[in-house]
């Protein structure tokens, strides 16, 4: 168990980098879909995000993207 802990700790930077890349790829695709949504409010909201800059304060929360994903899922489930 101790060896596993050391491996994780010493590779934490790589793990965080990988997770960040996966998130950015997912986020980009979802923002593209948001920009092409039939609802004008979502299309407008998409352009408030622009490019991802983690150290820049923004007006919209990243939780809006999560909310959009939930909405898409519910819309897809309804048909």
Key features?
79 residues, mainly alpha, 4 helices, 71% helix, elongated
Can you characterise this structure?
The chain has helices at residues 2-10, 12-35, 40-46, 63-78. The chain has 79 residues and is mainly α. The protein has one domain (2-78). It is elongated, with a radius of gyration of 17 Å.
Layout of strands and helices, then pairs:
Layout lengths: L1 H9 L1 H24 L4 H7 L16 H16 L1
How large a portion of the residues is in β-strands, by DSSP E?
Answer: under 5%
Secondary structure tally: strands = 0
| Count of domains | 1
- Please give the radius of gyration in angstroms: 17 Å
By secondary-structure content and strand pairing, the structural class works out as mainly alpha
Amino-to-carboxy terminus distance: 47 Å
Short structural summary:
By secondary structure, the chain is mostly helical. It contains four helices and no strands. It is 71% helix and 0% strand.
């Amino acid at each position: 168990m101790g060896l596993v802990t050391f491996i994780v700790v010493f590779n934490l930077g790589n793990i965080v980098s990988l997770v960040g890349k996966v998130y950015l790829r997912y986020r980009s695709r979802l923002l593209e879909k948001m920009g092409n949504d039939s609802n004008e409010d979502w299309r407008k909201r998409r352009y408030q995000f622009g490019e991802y800059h983690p150290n820049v304060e923004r007006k919209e929360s990243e939780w809006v993207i999560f909310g959009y994903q939930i909405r898409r899922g519910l819309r897809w489930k309804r048909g």
